[in-house]
């Protein structure tokens, strides 16, 4: 089946390991050539009236039963192997997060008992969140969950502290990264968007015990925006637009509560880039649309406002829910990309979505083709 749980994946892995250790029994040869009378042994029933309810195979009654310590040790030799397998599983089936993350954290509590193991865990999750497309949100959710569930807290810091230290290492190289080559900037942009997801998803306890966001991440995002705008090449500006679309409303609300006008300063930077920078026309258009989005309160509609149908003219948020397409090389692109028209035309030609034979409404389906 396509939607296989991680416990089923583990069970299949264990069965494969056991099958490799089985010894084959000969079915022919001198040893078994003569017929022998078979003796049927007496089998004593192990059934009990107190036995638990019967569940058919494939029904996951209790995830923990399929993930015992013995099966775990049989399938995985290292922490890195286990964690990477689970991260890949979440990447392929993100809907399994709610049902399987609890057992994942419980297993880690039994495995991660030293400082080195905790640092290795942080690095594995960080690399997955910044190198695998579209895993930044899931990685941030996983980090938030583990920050509240992992029991180990060595002198070097707990899970959340080590995670923030790892992010700080990348953060301190922000000015060099924005001026680096294309590969360096791409890696840096992935980090920026992961940090944005962490800001939105990582919950810490406030002074009164309430859940709040990490203020240090808010300050970090502000400086990252400054670094991106300081070298206004196209991909840096596109990253800044994505960052502000993701966190702009939350950042501005928080700054206003503190009496700060940081968002006004950012909008001024954007307007200066549009006037002076040598970026492409499409990127300048994206920046102007972002300014319009902010002027409409980031697309948020008050509850007492009358309903009007959204159009590109009256809703700056109109194009934000455009579908994601993929090039022949598997690279995702949306209407926000500067070369969207060119890539989309290549997609139409590759997929042959509008063949000439189907023009003018002619039905070409044969009998029974429905």
From TrEMBL:
Residues 1-11 have a biased composition (Basic and acidic residues). InterPro entries: ARM-type_fold, MIF4G-like_typ-3, mRNA_TranslReg/HistoneTransl. Signal peptide: none annotated. Residues 22-31 have a biased composition (Low complexity). Residues 1-31, 350-370 are annotated as: Disordered. The keyword Cytoplasm applies. GO terms for cellular component: cytoplasm. Residues 80-297 form the MIF4G domain. Pfam families: MIF4G. It is found in: Cytoplasm. Its main location: cytoplasm. SUPFAM superfamilies: ARM repeat (SSF48371). Keywords: Cytoplasm, Translation regulation. One of its GO terms (molecular function) is translation activator activity. The keyword Cytoplasm applies. It comes from the Eukaryota. GO terms for biological process: regulation of translational initiation. This is Polyadenylate-binding protein-interacting protein 1. It comes from Crotophaga sulcirostris (Groove-billed ani). The lineage of its organism: Eukaryota, Metazoa, Chordata, Craniata, Vertebrata. The gene is Paip1.
């Amino acid at each position: 089946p396509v939607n296989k749980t991680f416990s089923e994946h583990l069970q299949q892995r264990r069965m494969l390991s056991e099958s490799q250790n089985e010894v084959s029994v000969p079915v022919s040869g001198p040893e078994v050539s003569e017929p022998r009378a078979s003796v049927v042994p007496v089998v004593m029933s192990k059934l009990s009236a107190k036995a638990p309810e019967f569940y058919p195979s494939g029904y996951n009654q209790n995830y923990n039963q399929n993930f015992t310590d013995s099966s775990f040790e049989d399938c995985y030799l290292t922490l890195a192997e286990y964690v990477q397998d689970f991260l890949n599983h979440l990447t392929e089936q993100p809907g399994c997060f709610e049902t399987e993350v609890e057992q994942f954290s419980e297993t880690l509590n039994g495995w991660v008992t030293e400082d080195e193991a905790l640092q290795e865990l942080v690095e594995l999750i960080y690399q997955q969140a910044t190198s695998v497309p579209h895993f930044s949100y899931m990685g941030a959710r996983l980090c938030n969950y583990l920050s509240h569930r992992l029991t180990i807290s060595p002198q070097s810091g707990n899970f959340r502290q080590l995670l923030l230290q790892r992010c700080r290492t990348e953060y301190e190289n922000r000015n060099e990264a924005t001026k680096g080559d294309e590969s360096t900037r791409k890696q840096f942009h992935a980090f920026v968007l992961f940090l944005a997801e962490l800001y939105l998803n990582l919950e810490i306890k406030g002074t009164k015990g309430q859940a709040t966001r990490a203020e240090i991440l808010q300050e970090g995002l502000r400086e990252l925006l400054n670094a991106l705008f300081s070298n206004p090449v196209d991909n840096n500006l596109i990253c800044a637009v994505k960052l502000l679309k993701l966190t702009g409303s939350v950042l501005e609300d928080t700054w206003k509560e503190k009496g700060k006008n940081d968002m006004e300063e950012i909008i001024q930077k954007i307007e200066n880039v549009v006037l002076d920078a040598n970026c492409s026309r499409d990127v300048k258009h994206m920046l102007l649309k972002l300014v319009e989005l902010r002027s409409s309160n980031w697309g948020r509609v008050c509850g007492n406002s009358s309903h009007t149908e959204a159009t590109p003219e009256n809703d700056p948020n109109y194009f934000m829910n455009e579908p994601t397409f993929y090039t022949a090389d598997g690279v995702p692109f949306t209407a926000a990309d500067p070369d969207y028209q060119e890539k989309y035309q290549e997609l139409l030609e590759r997929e042959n979505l509008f063949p000439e034979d189907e023009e003018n409404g002619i039905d070409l389906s044969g009998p029974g083709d429905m």
